[in-house]
Amino acid sequence: MSNKRVLSGMQPSGKLHLGNWLGALKNWVKLQHEYESFFFIADWHALSTNYEDTSRIRENVFEMAVDWVAAGLDPEKSVIFLQSGVLEHAELHVLLSMMTPVSWLERNPTYKDQQQQITGRDLATYGFLGYPVLQAADILIYRANCIPVGIDQLPHLELTREICRRFNTFYGDVFPEPQPLLAETAKVPGLDGRKMSKSYGNTINLSDTPEEIRQKVMTMVTDPQRIKRTDVGNPEVCGVYSFHKIFSSKDEQAEVAEGCRTAGIGCIDCKKRLLANLMAELTPIQEKRNELVAAPDKIRAILDDGAGRARKAAQETMQAVRESMKLYV
Q: What is the pTM (predicted TM-score) of this model?
């Protein structure tokens, strides 16, 4: 086990899908064997855009915890916890907000983009503007060395690094500067060929039943020019083939691509082969998931135990923060 600490989290905004699994969660499962790992469900962050209706957050927290453990996060190897279960996040957030320039938050590209993209909600709130400060607190409270991110998330991490440097300049070297841990992740298309997203309604969820997955795969978009079984197709414009690139072996990818180009294989048969490979990966997750859904007390115990372990680390950090800032301790 490396002595370096890794941390990441997700907002409980709905059911996890293949994009979440391949884009982050599968990598976390690997990292827990290489780093001291902290993974948290960011329920306070969910309030930044859903503060008016909190009715689904509790259910989403449970579903996310189930998905994480079913997918392979091991509470013996990772600290799995709920953000709001460790109040030190909020304390550090307050202190960091006192020294973070507003101009840093206003230049955050996500701030203006989401205000334009998310309609029907009033996002002119301090919580939405200041969520990067809370995000910085989430990371710095555990003095995490490495943060698994995609390239598109680097600007967010850089703001945390700037806040870290500013604090250390004022008060001494309390926090290590968190480094990005880039990993190649599969870009998962949705059922309609667009990016897989809950907002598009084009997802395959980890919680879907085998029959629901079968129905979704069988309705996936293929080459629009291939109308009849005897028509030749172009696999590179076919959504099904995009999934084959992720879930099928190189040999099978070559076979279905050649079959598509020569009309040697029909779209239905191509989908059936994809379905078999997809279910081979998802079936173990679903079996474990069914066990966990039937044992909600086990999930609560995992989150409670994780919060206790996270709280211990966070309290050690806050003691160092208060001493460095000359606050009452």
A: 0.92
